[in-house]
Amino acid sequence: MKPALAGGVLAAALLLTACDKDMMMEPEAASPSLYQRLGEKPAITAVVDQFVANVAADARINQYFAGADIPRLKAMLVDQICEASGGPCVYKGGDMKSVHDGMGVTDEAFNALVGDLVAALDQFNVPEQEQSELLAVLGGMKGDIVES
Q1: Which residues sit in the known binding site for heme?
Q2: Residues 120, 45: contact at Cβ < 8 Å?
Q3: How far is it, in rounded angstroms, from Cα 71 to Cα 77?
Q4: DSSP structure class, residue 85
Q5: What total number of domains does the chain contain?
Q6: Which annotated residues bind heme (predicted)?
Q7: Which secondary structure element, helix H or strand E, spans residue 35, and what is its range?
Q8: pLDDT per residue as tens digits for the range 78-122
């Protein structure tokens, strides 16, 4: 066999081998987002519903929400968590500093609120990894919420 022809046969064999789907390497799948791992919008909505119920029953902090439009609050919380966790939602509420200005939210009240959220996450068996990631994202807002 002539060298040029041998090279062509070799190249064709390599090409066919590379095209064999059993031999091809699959691209690595992207890791699911926090939003996906939380269960997407239906699961976030369920957690928010329980969270708001926990807050309503929490005498340490429920006075902060006495005049709130609860259906709107729930919708805003769902959108905020959805967006913050990498989901497709867009939070259209105000910035945390403006929304909480003048409310006198203390560290203790903020920590009680976080406790009520963790209790809701626990009720729905949200794994610790996802809880930690979500709390890290939301915890960044503390400086804009706590006034004293």
Answers
A1: 100
A2: no
A3: 10
A4: T
A5: 1
A6: 100
A7: helix 34-38
A8: 999 999 999 999 999 999 999 999 999 999 999 999 999 999 999
